[in-house]
Fold this sequence. Notes:
The structure holds three protein chains of three kinds. By secondary structure, chain B is α/β, with parallel strands linked by helices. The longest helix of chain B is centred in the C-terminal third of the chain and has 18 residues, at 454-471. Chain C has a domain at 104-326: MetI-like fold (Orthogonal Bundle), CATH 1.10.3720.10. Chain C is built from 15 helices and no strands. In chain C, helix 6 (102-137) crosses helix 9, helix 6 (102-137) runs antiparallel to helix 11 and helix 10 crosses helix 11 (238-267). Chain C is flat. Chains in contact: A-B, A-C, B-C. At the A-C interface, helix 3, helix 10, helix 11, helix 14 and helix 15 of A face helix 1, helix 7, helix 8, helix 11 and helix 12 of C.
Amino acid sequence: xxxxxxxxxxxxxxxxxxxxxxxxxxxxxxxxxxxxxxxxxxxxxxxxxxxxxxxxxxxxxxxxxxxxxxxxxxxxxxxxxxxxxxxxxxxxxxxxxxxxxxxxxxxxxxxxxxxxxxxxxxxxxxxxxxxxxxxxxxxxxxxxxxxxxxxxxxxxxxxxxxxxxxxxxxxxxxxxxxxxxxxxxxxxxxxxxxxxxxxxxxxxxxxxxxxxxxxxxxxxxxxxxxxxxxxxxxxxxxxxxxxxxxxxxxxxxxxxxxxxxxxxxxxxxxxxxxxxxxxxxxxxxxxxxxxxxxxxxxxxxxxxxxxxxxxxxxxxxxxxxxxxxxxxxxxxxxxxxxxxxxxxxxxxxxxxxxxxxxxxxxxxxxxxxxxxxxxxxxxxxxxxxxxxxxxxxxxxxx
Amino acid sequence: xxxxxxxxxxxxxxxxxxxxxxxxxxxxxxxxxxxxxxxxxxxxxxxxxxxxxxxxxxxxxxxxxxxxxxxxxxxxxxxxxxxxxxxxxxxxxxxxxxxxxxxxxxxxxxxxxxxxxxxxxxxxxxxxxxxxxxxxxxxxxxxxxxxxxxxxxxxxxxxxxxxxxxxxxxxxxxxxxxxxxxxxxxxxxxxxxxxxxxxxxxxxxxxxxxxxxxxxxxxxxxxxxxxxxxxxxxxxxxxxxxxxxxxxxxxxxxxxxxxxxxxxxxxxxxxxxxxxxxxxxxxxxxxxxxxxxxxxxxxxxxxxxxxxxxxxxxxxxxxxxxxxxxxxxxxxxxxxxxxxxxxxxxxxxxxxxxxxxxxxxxxxxxxxxxxxxxxxxxxxxxxxxxxxxxxxxxxxxxxxxxxxxxxxxxxxxxxxxxxxxxxxxxxxxxxxxxxxxxxxxxxxxxxxxxxxxxxxxxxxxxxxxxxxxxxxxxxxxxxxxxxxxxxxxxxxxxxxxxxxxxxxxxxxxxxxxxxxxxxxxxxxxxxxxxxxxxxxxxxxxxxxxxxxxxxxx
Amino acid sequence: xxxxxxxxxxxxxxxxxxxxxxxxxxxxxxxxxxxxxxxxxxxxxxxxxxxxxxxxxxxxxxxxxxxxxxxxxxxxxxxxxxxxxxxxxxxxxxxxxxxxxxxxxxxxxxxxxxxxxxxxxxxxxxxxxxxxxxxxxxxxxxxxxxxxxxxxxxxxxxxxxxxxxxxxxxxxxxxxxxxxxxxxxxxxxxxxxxxxxxxxxxxxxxxxxxxxxxxxxxxxxxxxxxxxxxxxxxxxxxxxxxxxxxxxxxxxxxxxxxxxxxxxxxxxxxxxxxxxxxxxxxxxxxxxxxxxxxxxxxxxxxxxxxxxxxxxxxxxxxxxxxxxxxxxxx
Lengths: 398, 553, 330
């Protein structure tokens, strides 16, 4: 702690020197001349942080296993970051040279984060669609002749098995296969839920915006009340009830979950599509169409919807992230996607304890982090793309 | 306003080039303009939108907006090179020696602070005067600018003060450090004419009193004629010509300048008076209307005859557009009725038949919001053709092409374009074509030229006049601009606060005697005479113009 | 000022009404459970008397409207009935001491959750505001872009991922903080703080990112307004432009986002409490959901919703007060 404080103070001196040196070296070039002390401090701080990262990374490659283990995850993180960055750059290069004129132009102005996002989404879709070809075993397959509870990491000395790099679970299913199938289940269910939420909330929202009057009032008040209950809490409450009804009705609990989350989430979609719809409805071209005597259907589908696609698409991304994370959280809490479907949230809960092995056997600790990381990575990817889309649409307005 | 002899120029701009960012490339906004301003002199910068006059004005302060950069040339203020000066040096000049008065005072005052707090900010932060002294000075300035209640108006928040008063308070704020130079960026464009005149005279007095140099940016020639010693005309980032105000007004050299001057003289010959006893095409009969509980129209009545243009004139909030909404049926009146060809129309547009709807069409002020940005020009015009006339396929396409030809746009080139790929004037022409496509007999034109540059606006007016003759259309022309009225109207209806104040043929309206309000309105429109404002003030006195005069009515 | 007062009173009344309706929704939702539910909770071995006791306790023998009002009346006095877990325990021991009431179960845990939320807020709010202002000040710089990527990532990550990453680095690899938050009633404050720090840091990561982004967006949104340009043209320094001219006008959205995130801290702690085995109300809620301990679920839901509505209401009123147009009517 004291060392940290001392470092911060010495940075201040360094920053002052850095600015002075910069001014002297460049003959008071405007950039250094107008540089505030805070900016100079920021540069020094960033350089120091970068230096520490390089040092830590080198530690992670140390021959001494004790030291290497300690920095193993940092090393993986750094390597992962670099690999993904290069991958995203190559992907963008590909996009700039292959495809139609429109997509090429799109890729030309794309930041690296967005191309990373698109690349990751494509990879996830690929894994989800071809899960059954990629996974060595079935998601619910109890492999015969193989012990349950094989430790992850494939190190025989620690109770692992190289044939099962991530080990097996308590009833002998291959964790790697379940991780791959997780893409299908977790992502697929979240996608379906978002689509339902959009159909429900979107149609209601536009209807309320165009018709106004008592329908708008009624729907808006209902949405107000539903939104006054925190969504995760409400979902948990309704899932409690669903969990009682599901076995009696013979309908899988997962279906209930899809419906419940779709309804809860459709309130947010409703709010947005109503707002977007209202901002379009006040336009003069809508007034012109109304005065022409156009019917409701024409107004909705020809005049309003085409102008609402951009904000709705961005919202779809955001809502998908939200639904995806909610489902993962519910599963993590044990009331979401139910076995035997393989799903990442449940896996994190079941394998979470392995994190405690990290210090002496980093590989053993990876499965829960892989499952949680898989959730995070997709959400990050989608958010990057949405962020870019929002930025683009706001930029076009100016 | 004569400058002291043999001083170095206050502002010296040489061959300045300014670029603006658009997508990925930098496009030139200003392409090498020179500007010299002596101490105490007022330079008028005029040009249409996109001429780069605001950009040039800001560059004279060494400032560029986000996405704009100065790529070449030099800007010197009193011998200081503003392009190479450090940020600290520039900050020390801004507010203290160079001040800025923005177009919209309502948006340029910070809504979170009182006027006086914003007034004293520059003197206090620049270390010129203490809070108390500069606050007292502010009150003195408010008095000089003839603001009502100078003692307490500064202690209000911006939203509590009217637009014309805010504009004067902003001029006072610019004066707070007694700068050497003030940039006025269209300070009266957003104001009504009766308010504008008050602000103009206040600005002119105070600038003369403190012998401050100024750059006055505007698109309105008549305004600049009152304010400036010299005038510089810009066109698409290049200088057209510069001369003394009087020389410029009487003997412009360049064709472009001449055409600008000529715009104001466009006037269509008036039609013969309507014979007594003819049934008007549209009759507004004793209409009262209200938004919720607030009554906005009181007993409005006037007639529009076939083939004639009726201009409805008034300042913002006078009820012009509301009357139009009553005629179209968007706002059913609470009393009175609308007659079409002598027969009453259902008050609500939803109750009107397709043919009734077809007969009345509308052209909007903002062409941007009047055209669906996702539809091509062809689709926009084709829709009413198909909807009302039932044409499809080749016949529909032929009709659309004919309409495009009628509005002087080449069908082959424009049919597939999106509205975003058109200029402002072209968009407005598409709006006209869409109205014509319904083959109506009556068109409401709601401020159709006020968002356009003068030359473009003139083109639109000529087009509308031609179409009227060819198709014997009737127009209701809503406008606040009396030059437009003079150009196109046959009859004039003057409105104020939801009442019809006066109505009659155009020729009578422009000849006294009038209702007092009409008189004030007409006399407040600036003319192309540099002495107009001085003469008017001498004639009426400072207390008989602007809001003060309106309040007296 | 009368104007503002009426608006605030309206909002208060509306908030109260919302809470009332929400309580109805929660109550009705719970009553969607099948009628023979008590039987299945207690299992086959339950005596008819204990089943009848539970039915009576839930008031299942009365009409629904009457049940709602007696439940609401109880809740207003802090009496949420007794939990199933306790009821079946009482069933076995045959005693009916008041020790098993839901309220007694919830009270200490509620305090714990509030403590966790307070610690997180104390770190997150100032941190987020300063970062947000800095990002707006140095917008489009490397710093801004780096924070953008960092905050987007932390918003997108599920809480349990962040929690495990923090456990990994701060508890397992570098044993600085404990990974399990076992908190007792009579613990020293410093001890309690240390045990709370890791869950608090996890929440901070999530909440800071969101608040910081909104602060930045709210300020940048204003930076294109003419009055900001005016301030710059008056020669004001960039920092003064942001702090003195932009910030006061960005208050309403910032207050709003802070309130939303505080509400999130109180209601969205569920996952974090489960990861760290933190004895808060969130964990109790999840456990009750699993055991279908309906009275507890109902009570927790109502408390969460009340906290959520109350915070949003506070935000609403504060943004009204921060608006000069409303504070100083014409």
